[in-house]
Amino acid sequence: VSAPLRSGRRISAETFDFYFDGRRYIAQRGDTAASALAANGVRAFGRSIKYRRLRGLLALGPEEPNALLTVGEAPACIPNVPAPLVRVEPGMRLYSQNRWPSLRIDVASLLRLGSGFWGAGFYYKTFIWPSWKFYEGLIRRLAGLGLAPGSCNLPPARVLHLDADVIVAGGGAAGLRAALAALRLHQRVILCEREPVLGGELSFETATIDGLAALEWVRVAIDELMRGGARILTDTAIVSAAGGVVIAHHQPAGMPGADTLLRLYAPRLVNAMGAIERPIAFVDNDLPGIMLAGAAERLLSDYGVRAGERAVLFGNHDRLYRTAQRLRAGGVDVKLIVDTRDSTPSGAREALLGAGVECLLAHSIVRAFGSSAVRAVQIAPVTRRIDCDAVLLSGGWSPAVRAADAKDWHDVCGAAAGKLSLAAIAGTSDDDGEPQLEPYWRSACTAAEEKRQFVDLQNDVTVADLRQALAEGFRDIEHVKRYTTLGVGTEQGRTGGMLGAAIVAELSGTALAAIGTSRARGPYQPVPMGVLSGTRVGAGLRPERRTPLHDVHIAAGAVMELMGGWMRPRYYTGNGKDSFSAGIAEAARVRQAGGICDGSTLGKIEIAGPDAAAFLDRLYLNSASAIEPGRARYAALLREDGMVLDDGLLLRQTPARYIATTSSSHTAQVLSHLEFYRDTEFRGRRIAITDITEARSVIIVAGPDSRTALRTALGYDWHERLAALRHMGFVEAANLRLLRASFSGELAYELHCQPAIAQDLWQSLGAAGLKPFGLEALDILRVEKGYLTSSELNGQTTPMDAGMGAMLRAGSDGAPRNSVGRALLEREGLKAADRPILVGLRAADGSGQFLGGAQITAAPGDRMSLGYVTSAVFSPALKEWIGLALIARHSSAVGTELVARDPLRGGDMRVRIVPPAHFDPESQRIRA
Amino acid sequence: MSLFTCPFCGPRNLEEFSFHKTLPNIAGGEFEKIYLRRDSPSQSDEHWQHRYGCRAWLRVRRNPSSGDILEVELLTGAPP
Questions:
Q1: What is the pLDDT of residues A122-146, one digit of tens each?
Q2: Which of A189, A233, A773, A776 is least crowded, fewest Cβ atoms below 10 Å from its Cβ?
Q3: Claim: this prediction has a pTM higher than 0.90
Q4: A824:B13 CB<8 A
Q5: What ipTM did this prediction achieve?
Q6: DSSP letter, residue B77
Q7: Which chain A residues contact residue B35 at CB under 8 A?
Q8: HEC states along A550-593?
Q9: Which chain A residues touch B if contact means CB-CB below 8 Å?
């Protein structure tokens, strides 16, 4: 049976299919899941979290506590989306939550039939034997809202930063008016509205503003804003507002996955987000079909959906009568209006009475009847039962101020500021004035019935829970919240918070103002985690840096590895079946003949200016001013607490120009460190610091054949300079710097070249007979030579620990040099006998294997650690496992036998201490 | 707390800045200077760098309770 087409302000005549819990339904273009399902006669949208009671639609905005749906198929589904926020699309699949195996038959609700109601603190009090952990698994399966998707295939959300002079949140009458006012003061305005159209409550307003029909006034206002250059963002929901930044989520209808996370900046934030209608509590007030009056009115005007055929209205103000008139005009049979007040001056009431609608004063609904939906209500004090299929509630409105702490909004206007008449909000209007509200929170009932007077529908908090919390001594509303779960979850007290506070006030005999409401937490409406993370997922989390030689490595069969943010060749597949065998083969070849390695990731920082030498003398342990131009020196710098920050080379190009090299992963830290001292101690001195890491590629050329290969590759022009170049010297041409320095213990050079010529140079060196080697081989070579990396300089080692004591000696003038970090090296503990010192390590029997990370002890099975292995490799030069370790000074004498304990990987292994330089300790090969 | 006003660049997003340390505020020697701080709920003087901007080093005065930025100025002179 096809239903007749509906007409409403938001929907068009285009129809299509969608699915709810696998069943097919028809929607019209523009429908939300709430309106489409309601139009199809669906009353129950899900089950409640604790009692698994069937629940329907209460509200028509993000405050909806019960109708939370899962949108889409797992794994790429989004749970916990309030049905009023889901724009239905053709073929869309929606699922109800908190039920198993289906919404109609739910096992958990059957299990609980016999057990009665679970009061506040039930879990804490019940599941204590044998322990909470014993029950946790089962309870977790039954608890919570929708299930989180296992993974997500949606594209990452875009992130957009915008700024303005004024941000207005909310595009109803108040928001439009605020935006217009700002625009007329020549302010740049951003207006955010979560709905696809502007106007808010004006969509069903019959009164006029400034002499114009409400919707016409909206059209004129939009026109002026657009012409004035205001930025109007519809479909854009406020997530939070704090500290001058508004976070908003833009999701255009029909484009799931096309989300944008907006970060909006402005010195003025205006809250015009309106107010949220409050329910009134009575017995079984949670039955499907019991809805807020405003939601029913909007369902009708925007989507042409009648909330029911026979409605009873229940409230405490004059708006009820206007709502009743509009619902009647839309074809709803209003059976009865129950007004809690003793009298009302409303003219609308007279008109309704004249039309034969029964309007009771000084009455209230005390309970609802029905199983899967409301069938009737009972009123009091003159007791009567009235059959109906919809109960429309309005207990007043709470300002929507909860997106942020009040202090974060500079201005609050409209209903968010407590103004409830259009005349007060829009300036001039012929509306019917203030609603003449008289507070009314819940109808009278017996103590037993309080267990079915629901205050917070999302969290199944009842009046009985609040009474129990108070009886057990929870007084503060924040404590009551935590004990009863009042106002937690996505609801955050928007529909039930004020009601709960009022009932706590009533039960404790305190003034409501003294109780206050609990603090709401963001986000203001559910937002997918994937939107919050924006592009910061996967590779977007940290950009992958590639050297100019990247493609060459790939073509040569390199296995790449991410190291310190850079993609670097670990080994080349042609040299062995895995990293272990390839690394050994590559390292052996370097010692035997030679090889080339990509060192472009090496940090290079230029320090220039007349005061550069004095500056570096203060920062580095070694004296920079003693370096001759054209020479380099190994140097280390300390943090202010005395630990080694990094080591590298200082190259002096001219008397006033240095280049400091840094470890690949420490460049940013060293740069900030240098800049800090430039800006403080050396402020006003002439020093320029520039990171030139990416301006120069580096090719490491190492091995006995390296000089010959360079002769061939660089050509005749360089022969003389190459021959004259001594260890730690360098020569420069326009696009090339040739430095003789070694990290491998071999005769070695570094070519610092323009990135544009790096590939050509690399190919020429290859043609000259040098094969590439990767990080594995580099690590073997440096451990053989006892050189350090961040495994040893790990932020906990002093220069004394790392064997750099020589750098701490007094300068040529005999006075100790006062560089950064020196003062705290004098601490007693850093000179203690159990401080670690760098040593070399070999297997005591000359053949066993040990690994980095093994703890060093004096004897097998000993639990007292003396230190640990920082690096361990198999040395092709020495044909055995070798390593470096940091070991307590008192046990570090060369020849000492200790035990490397590695219970998880290899067990105990006897090791012997040797000097750190395992290979060529006299460095004869470097000087060849 | 989300916006810093850099003396060079004007109001900028917090994400562009990196915190370095709370400034020493206890009398004593080098050890006190580096390791000891007296925390105040209403005022904290800190070093920050506009790392993803002009790279200037800044002295920032914050209210840690409210998150308000009270003062941002360039670092000058000897590091305290």
A1: 666 666 666 666 666 666 655 667 7
A2: A233
A3: no
A4: no
A5: 0.94
A6: S
A7: 641
A8: HHHHHHCCEEEEEECCEEEEEEEHHHCCCHHHHHHHHHHHHHHC
A9: 161, 242-245, 263, 265, 640-641, 672, 675-677, 679-681, 683, 823-824, 827
